[in-house]
């Protein structure tokens, strides 16, 4: 018999951990499936094993993840299964996953998708060269092993770019340069949002102090950069761009790209939840109720997978969802749900400013014809435009013609770009263009493991 | 519902359904000089025609289908001339493996029976010959049956290429338009949709799993069932197989694509939800597909599944399609229920339906495919 659990949570980042704590505290049987060996997600990655020095380098916002992780570890009744990769959600929330090379399944009474965000892919000339990485990837190295790259150039926009630069400065290996793509006039255009964001001024102050720290350390900073291209034959040798009307070329063997993060839609798309285009965040988000339930009953999203709001909000959303489910199951939850909703509203005040200031650059949203946008199948933006001109109305037809999104990444990397290229070429809104139909498995699955899989076999690791 | 007067001219033939059968019929009718309109509730090649495994196979067909399949193969071999695009069509052996002597004896008997009917395209492979063609096949395989110049094609490309060619010859395609009702009015059929109506003296119903709804309206109910055949594709492997392989005793369709990926399907089914256009993948079923593939090709033990998918298809209880004229109404024609093996038949049946619509009859005997075959027992 397949196990039935009241709550199955996918992801052990801040949202997943907090949700588990609340759901279990109300006596609901709760399972947390997470790919990583330790809780924390991306934001608090390796939080339990971080050394004091690493905590110092990574800063207060990272270190506070320790409290949540320890609350999660101590929660009674949370069945935490690290190293689990969910590869499908079958009918009636049958969660199918792989752990230790074996696949099994749990049926979820309520399913909480806490799979967070992914970095927005940054297609620009040369981005597929070895030596090109992302700010997020560099930060993961820093969190998990304390490694930093000497002489890396960070380019793009967004808070993480400056945070990583500040952390690299503190780690003693500052980046060679920061090449920021925010247009110079944009700060003035965001004045109304900036004023509204004063209600959450601790974020603004933190941001300013990060930028000050990087500047004081002597890192070369280029603002308002355009027409970025990465050069190299076989591997990165330099980055070129234009800033303040001047052409620049910086020699480097490591370029880290970043243009913000976007919700990881794979699970909610697989389930067929309704999504909408958020033009401020330039991404799709699942439609959510006040309790963060999707258009599919009993499926919830907690954290950045529902729209980018940051780690603190993710934690509060996780608690909110855990309590909302408990409420539905007839467990009393008191006034906390209302308090959390209010706190989430306060926390969100800084977002419009950040979203407007750090809108991804045009070069990324609408790449040149020659730029590869689907890395797995090596398809250029130009081929997608041609296919649209020949009559392909949406991503699924483009996929059928060009194989975009059919590679091992399952469209995670090219999906949003393909939608925005089709939208631009056809004049249709991103909502009308829509997104790939996502097919399982969500992550590549060994054929031999599937051959051994039985959905009806109990999971031998669990005594229940 | 109000019937809006049709803004269209009245075509000679209205085709309901933009799959390969509808598109091929539209093309061949247009080649005969008929004016054709195709209405499709979603988009052309959205369902079974666009997402099937792409096998172009005469091998192993029901004897009733063999003459049509053989004719279709001739058209396939000339597909670039017909459509101006090659549709990814490649000639390759289709091989059905025998895993024991009993299965092989059955295959041998079939080949002899076909030969007596005058068809020589299926040949028996012995243990040695099967390994010449499939060096990676498992040790226990004792032989097989093959059509050496069958092949495979890209289904979405093929179906949309039929559409493009038909359009070049004047056919009109209207997508996102679902036929709701068929009514007879002054010598024409009127097909109403939510927003519009279409009028034509002749109507071809070729909308796969959804055809039964329209046939029932015409008082010709048929037991067509919506099914969701399951397929999966692996990551790239070094080239090891240039044939399309099936098995005798268990369902399988196995093919390594030119890019190295391996597409595996052939009979296991998910859950079809035709009303919502969705189908559910059942990995408990695909598990059996994975197991079969590994046991016939041990190299597959190292492969990784990248994607699984399904498409909604119409299946008949006897697993052969409904092809031919209505038994009750003038000007109504049917072509559906291909039961997950209609892709190869598309070109020849398209040609037949055009012949039928244009002349009222066909040279080929279609009696085995008649729509009323499921009721004959009750009538007698």
UniProtKB/TrEMBL annotation, chain A:
Oxidoreductase as UniProt keyword: yes
Presence of keyword Lipoprotein: no
Keywords: Oxidoreductase
Chain ranges of the FAD/NAD(P)-binding domain: 5-318
Entries under SUPFAM superfamilies matching the protein: FAD/NAD(P)-binding domain
InterPro entries xref list: BFD-like_2Fe2S-bd_dom, BFD-like_2Fe2S-bd_dom_sf, FAD/NAD-bd_sf, FAD/NAD-binding_dom, Metab_Enz_Cyan_OpOx_G3PDH, Opine_Oxase_asu/HCN_bsu
Domain BFD-like [2Fe-2S]-binding: 372-422
Pfam families attached to this UniProt entry: Fer2_BFD, Pyr_redox_2
Gene Ontology molecular function terms on file: oxidoreductase activity
PANTHER family: ANAEROBIC GLYCEROL-3-PHOSPHATE DEHYDROGENASE SUBUNIT B
Name of protein: FAD-dependent oxidoreductase
The organism of origin for this protein: Paracoccus alkanivorans
TrEMBL record, chain B:
One Pfam family, short name: DAO
Coiled coil start-end: none
InterPro entries linked to this entry: FAD-dep_OxRdtase (IPR006076), FAD/NAD-bd_sf (IPR036188)
Keywords: Oxidoreductase
Key word Cell division present: no
GO cellular component: cytoplasm
Example GO molecular function: oxidoreductase activity
Keyword Oxidoreductase: yes
Domain FAD dependent oxidoreductase: 12-356
SUPFAM superfamilies assigned: FAD/NAD(P)-binding domain (SSF51905)
Highest taxon listed in the record's lineage: Bacteria
Gene3D superfamilies, per database record: D-Amino Acid Oxidase, subunit A, domain 2, FAD/NAD(P)-binding domain
Name listed for the protein in its UniProt record: FAD-binding oxidoreductase
């Amino acid at each position: 018999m397949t196990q039935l659990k009241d709550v199955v949570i996918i992801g052990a980042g801040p949202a997943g951990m907090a949700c588990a704590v609340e759901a279990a505290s109300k006596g609901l049987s709760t399972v947390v499936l997470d790919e990583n060996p330790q809780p924390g997600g991306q934001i608090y990655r390796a939080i339990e094993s971080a050394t004091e020095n690493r905590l110092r380098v990574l800063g207060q916002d990272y270190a506070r993840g320790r409290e949540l992780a320890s609350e999660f570890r101590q929660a009674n009744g949370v069945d935490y299964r690290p190293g689990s990769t969910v590869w499908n959600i079958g009918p009636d929330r049958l969660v199918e996953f792989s752990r230790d090379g074996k696949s099994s399944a749990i049926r979820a009474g309520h399913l909480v998708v806490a799979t967070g965000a992914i970095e927005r892919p940054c297609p620009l000339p040369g981005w597929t060269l070895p030596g090109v990485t992302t700010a997020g990837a560099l930060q993961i190295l820093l969190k998990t092993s304390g490694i930093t790259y000497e002489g890396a150039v960070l380019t793009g926009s967004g808070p993480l770019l400056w945070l990583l630069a500040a952390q690299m400065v503190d780690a003693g290996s500052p980046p060679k340069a920061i090449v920021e793509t925010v247009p110079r006039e944009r700060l003035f255009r965001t004045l109304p949002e900036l004023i509204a964001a004063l209600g959450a001024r601790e974020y603004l102050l933190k941001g300013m102090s990060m930028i000050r720290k990087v500047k004081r350390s002597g890192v070369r900073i280029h603002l308002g950069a355009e027409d970025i291209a990465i050069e190299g034959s076989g591997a990165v040798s330099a980055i070129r761009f234009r800033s303040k009307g001047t052409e620049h070329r910086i020699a480097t063997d490591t370029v880290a790209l970043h243009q913000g993060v976007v919700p990881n839609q794979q699970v909610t798309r697989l389930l067929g939840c309704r999504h909408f285009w958020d033009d401020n965040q330039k991404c799709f988000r699942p439609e959510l109720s006040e309790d963060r339930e999707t258009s599919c009953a009993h499926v919830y999203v907690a954290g950045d997978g529902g729209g980018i709001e940051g780690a603190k909000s993710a934690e509060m959303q996780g608690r909110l969802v855990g309590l909302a489910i408990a409420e539905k199951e007839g467990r009393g939850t008191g006034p906390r749900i209302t308090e959390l909703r209010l706190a989430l509203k306060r926390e969100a005040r800084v977002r419009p400013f950040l979203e407007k200031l750090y809108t991804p650059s045009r070069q990324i949203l609408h790449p040149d014809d020659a730029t590869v946008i689907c890395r797995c199948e090596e398809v250029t933006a130009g081929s997608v435009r041609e296919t649209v001109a020949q009559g392909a109305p949406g991503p699924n037809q483009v996929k059928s013609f060009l194989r975009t999104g059919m590679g091992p990444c399952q469209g995670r990397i090219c999906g949003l770009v393909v939608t925005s290229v089709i939208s631009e070429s056809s004049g249709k809104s991103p909502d009308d263009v829509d997104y790939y139909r996502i097919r399982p498995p969500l992550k590549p699955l060994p054929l031999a493991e599937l051959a051994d899989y039985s959905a009806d076999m109990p999971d031998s690791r669990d005594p229940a | 519902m109000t019937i809006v007067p049709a803004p269209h001219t009245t075509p000679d033939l209205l085709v309901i359904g933009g799959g390969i059968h509808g598109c091929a019929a539209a093309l061949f009718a247009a080649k005969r000089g008929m004016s054709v309109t195709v209405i499709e509730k979603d988009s052309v090649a959205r369902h079974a025609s666009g997402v099937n495994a792409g096998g172009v196979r005469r091998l192993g067909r029901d004897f009733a289908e063999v003459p049509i399949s053989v004719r279709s193969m001739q058209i396939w071999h000339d597909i670039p001339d017909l459509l101006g695009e090659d549709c990814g069509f490649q000639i390759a052996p289709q091989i059905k493996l025998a895993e024991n002597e009993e299965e092989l004896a059955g295959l041998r008997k079939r080949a002899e029976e076909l030969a007596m009917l005058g068809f020589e395209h299926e040949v028996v492979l012995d243990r040695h010959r099967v390994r010449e063609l499939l060096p990676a096949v498992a040790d226990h395989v004792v032989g097989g049956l093959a059509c050496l110049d069958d092949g495979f094609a890209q289904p979405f490309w093929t179906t949309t290429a039929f559409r493009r060619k038909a359009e070049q010859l004047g056919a009109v395609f209207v997508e996102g338009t679902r036929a709701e009702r068929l009514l007879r009015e002054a010598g024409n059929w009127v097909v109403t949709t939510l927003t519009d109506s279409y009028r034509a003296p002749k109507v071809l119903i070729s909308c796969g799993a959804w055809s039964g709804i329209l046939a029932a309206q015409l008082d010709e109910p048929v037991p067509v069932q919506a099914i969701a055949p399951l397929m999966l594709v692996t990551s790239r492997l070094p080239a090891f197989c240039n044939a399309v392989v099936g098995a005798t005793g268990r369902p399988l369709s196995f093919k390594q694509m030119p890019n190295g990926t391996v597409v595996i399907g052939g009979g296991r089914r998910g859950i079809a939800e035709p009303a919502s256009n969705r189908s559910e993948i059942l990995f408990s079923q695909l598990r059996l597909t994975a197991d079969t593939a590994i046991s016939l090709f041990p190299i597959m033990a190292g492969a990784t599944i990248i994607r699984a998918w399904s498409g909604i298809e119409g299946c008949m209880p006897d697993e052969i399609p409904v092809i031919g004229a209505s038994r009750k109404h003038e000007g109504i024609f049917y072509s559906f229920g291909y039961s997950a093996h209609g892709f190869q038949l598309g070109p020849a049946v398209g040609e037949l339906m055009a012949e039928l619509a244009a002349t009222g009859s066909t040279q080929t005997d279609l009696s085995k495919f008649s729509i009323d075959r499921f009721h004959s027992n009750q009538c007698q």
